[in-house]
Amino acid sequence: MRTERISMGDDRRDGRSRARAELEGRRVLVAGLGVTGAAVSRFLVRFGARVTVADDAGRDKLSSAAELSDMGVEVCAGGSYALPSEDAPSMVVVSPGVPHYSPLLGNARARGAEVISEVELAYRYIDSPVIAVAGTNGKSTVTALLGRVFKEAGVKAFVGGNIGRPAIECLEGEDRPECCVLEVSSFHLETTDTFAPYIAVLLNITPDHLDRYEDFGRYAATKMRLFEFQDPDDWAVVNSADPAVGERIKDGVGHARLLRFSAAAGAHADVFIRDRDIVFVHPDGGGDEEIYPASPGRLSGPHNTANVMAVVAAARLFGVEPEAVRRALASFEPLAHRMERVRELDGVVYIDDSKATNTGALGAALKSVEGDVILIAGGRGKGESFEELAEPVREKVRVMILMGEAASEMRTSLGGCAETVEAASMEEAVRSARERARPGDTVLLSPACASFDMFSGYKERGLSFRAAVEAL
Ligand code: ADP
Question: Which terminus of the chain is less hemmed in, N or C, by CB atoms within 10 Å?
Answer without folding.
Answer: N
